[in-house]
Amino acid sequence: MYLIFLTLILCSCMKGEKVDLIFHNAAILCLDDSYSTGNAIAIKNGKIIEIGPERQILNKYRADEITDLQGKEITPNFTEGNLIIDSILNIKILKEIEIKQLERGITEVFVHNVSNDQLLKLLQYSSQMELIWHINLIPNKENVSFIRAKNTIKNQKIHIQGFTISNNSPEAILEACAIAKNQNLQIGLDFKKSKQFISIILKSLEDYKKDHRWFAFNLDDSEKNTFKLLEENNFFLLLNKNNKFNPSLFVFGSKSSKNGLYYELSVYSKLNNVDFVKILKSISNWSNYLTFSETKSGSLNIGKYANFTIFETSLSKSHDYNNVYSNATFIKGKKIYSME
């Protein structure tokens, strides 16, 4: 068997289309709508060229770097839906946060209720970070003035998504909604803290017909009629871990506890008899829908960015999620983290 694979690898070096990277002898979970799988992946210019059976990929492509993963699992990179950060930030603290995320295959994080001081620190240190930050600001005077002056900011690492609405004043809420509509930003409703202002927010949307993907989280199961109103106005309803499961609406139920993101999701999976792989899709493919990037990343498919993690032990089959770590994590085909 070893001689057969050695022959395939040698042949792939001499014929076939040239790509940058080939990983084979892997267990690949694409986490797309079809829950596709594969054993090998070919990557070129930071994008996925093909995923398929090992022999097919090795016969069809050649690369200078071909890696036998010895059965390791590959998944898309994941998103932490509600990262809590300190009020005081410096590069040491941010690097500690980053390593804790990257070592679990998490390359993007959502942060809510961000102050102006926190935003300025994130922007200051963004060039030194690999993690991608999706920022929802507090709609206070400093942040509103900053957004009006700078317009939208979206560098490679810091993406200002919009504002988080919680227990703000009606005036602040209306101003945040107006800016969001004008600059194509998002509004995230902390439902429990802002439900008394839902009518104000919906009225501000009466003449707004864009695909805005505004969303609500911290939902209360007793407010079914309000949920219907939000859905009629194209809100994306993000359920919490205690609500009925819907794999497309689970993003903000994935808030990490001291036990870690995967452990928390695995507990939910067992309690609600939901397949763990479906839950993984909710923190990869569907979280990219919120950031308008579902055509570029989120699942592993031909033409999408090669954003993926190789796990040292199987994430989908593990019985001890506290000990599941990334062997290596890639963004656009570039290795940004390695446990070595």
Number of helices: 12
State the major sheet. 7 strands, parallel
**What is the radius of gyration?**
21 Å
Mean pLDDT: 84
Structural class per helix/strand content?
Answer: alpha/beta
Strand content: 25-35%
Order of strands, widest sheet: 8-9-10-11-12-13-14
CATH architect. name of the largest domain: Alpha-Beta Barrel
Question: What's the CATH H-level homologous superfamily of the largest domain?
Answer: Metal-dependent hydrolases
> What is the molecular shape?
globular
Number of domains: 2
Portion in helices: 25-40%
Q: Under the CATH scheme, which class of the largest domain?
A: Alpha Beta
Number of strands: 17
Describe the structure concisely.
With 340 residues, the chain is of the alpha/beta class.
Structure commentary:
The chain is of the alpha/beta class. The protein has two domains: 2-76 and 299-338, Urease, subunit C, domain 1 (Roll); 80-290, Metal-dependent hydrolases (TIM Barrel, Alpha-Beta Barrel), CATH 3.20.20. The protein is built from twelve helices and 17 strands. The strands form three sheets. Strands 8-9-10-11-12-13-14 form a seven-stranded parallel sheet. Strands 3-2-7-15-16-17 form a six-stranded mixed sheet, with no helix packed on it. A four-stranded mixed sheet has the order 5-4-1-6. α5 (141-150) runs parallel beside α6 (170-183). The two termini are 28 Å apart.
